[in-house]
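ok trying this again, last paste got cut off
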Amino acid sequence: MLHFTKRIKFSRKGWLLTLLFLLAVVLIPVFTILLRAFEPSGNSWNLITEFFLSRYIWNSLGLSLGVGSLCLIFGVLPAWLVSNFDFPGRKWLKLGLLFPLSIPTYIMAYTYTGIFDSTGTVQHYVAAWFGQATANAMYFDSMNPYFLTVLLAFCLYPYVYSACLISFSSGSSRQLEAASSLGSTAMSRFFRVGLPLAKPALFTGLFLVIMEVLNEYGAVQYFNIKTLTTGIFTAWENGDLNSAVRVALILLMIAMLFLLLSKWLKGKQKITTSTKTPILRRKLSGSKGILAMTFCFSLFLFSFFIPFIQLLAWSTIAYKGVVLDGFASMAGNTFLVSVVAAVIITMVAFLLLFAGNLLQSIGGRKLAALGLLGYSIPGAIIAVGIIIPFVFLDTTFGSDVLLGSVTGLVIAYLIRFLSVSYGPLKGAFERQGSRLDDASLSLQSRPVKTLFKVHLPILKPAFVMAVILVFVDVMKELPMTLILRPMNYDTLATEAYRYAQTNESAVQAAPFSILLILIGIIPILVLSKLIKR
């Protein structure tokens, strides 16, 4: 028995070292940026601070606040309507309003600008039906920050919508029913009961929206709007890594500021969805039902249906030429790197979660939670932050294994998307409790054997779901892929962006975009099942 006790202690030391190593890998970009930012600056940094930095900051903050405000409207109101009322098309719209999450922001940007371009779809049909004079009178320049704000909100509001939908549907059902029995009106229930109880979920979704806006590169570059992320790319492309690191540090500080603000706004209230009491929906008839349906359907129409149908139409035109131009190779690259990254990231999340639970007596769970900070760090920061250690390691060992390789790209994906796989696995771990661990240890089983022989088979559904979610996120990722990919290693995301950015044709980018969207619908269907539960 004494031998077994010593073996367990040794095993726990090994798991602690494993946990600390994984945390070191995840936090490499932050440490690198903090250290490199204090090195002497050159003339280019002085030029950036004098002419560009203030514009970078204000544009980033303006887009974040504008998109966040619109997402509150687009996300909260439909979630309240579909969870509390019955109206025509409610069941179908409940799922359909999640679909815009499958459209990457840069695809939404070039699709709508193609629709409203001077030679685009709208101008073509208006000129054909009402004459060229009417078409000229109706034309407006869509390449402006206000239109981009709306387009980004179309893509990102499902973060707020899904979080509020879960809260309204289950977490506050009893309180809403109690308020209704006391004669409270629908408006009063919304502002006095539903909204306050949904505050943690709402600000969690809003924080994810703001992080996505701060991380945005493809759409803002296409619209020629200078933000901190485009500033990082500009400095890096000009060979000025020090300036790129300094801009990245400012972006990191803003991201951390929003993270702290989100935690403060949520307060001490926790997200609770444990009640199984279904909410009693009230039927909206007549004009109220039509108004609710019109609002939700209009949002679905403009945020998903119109761009999707336009991309389908363009794909039928460009498909043959694209297939002959390496479409299969790019699809293969995308699938391979996404699958490899998804499996590795989910396995690391699995190890991180198990190590945290095993070491909870010494704060293991809090240490494991630090590994999730990567999702709150924009991809451009991660990319810049790992370039320097990659160069150092490759130079030291005389290899090119990390920088400009698939290996380096997968490590960057690991840092960015570890929390995506951690969430589903953590929920499954908590549901099964600690009894299996206790029983396994009482049988003198090593922790690593418990992990793979006990937990992994039981958590297989959650593991598969985590792999799917990470797979789609990796497939759509653009900023890190552009910076860290190997030479001539093209994916569906980079190729769609290249066609749009070089103004070759939005039509030529459509087949790549359609495939990305269709695959992106997979996690949405998974998410809809979770919401039903």
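PB: full thing came through this time. DSSP finds 25 helices and two strands in the chain.
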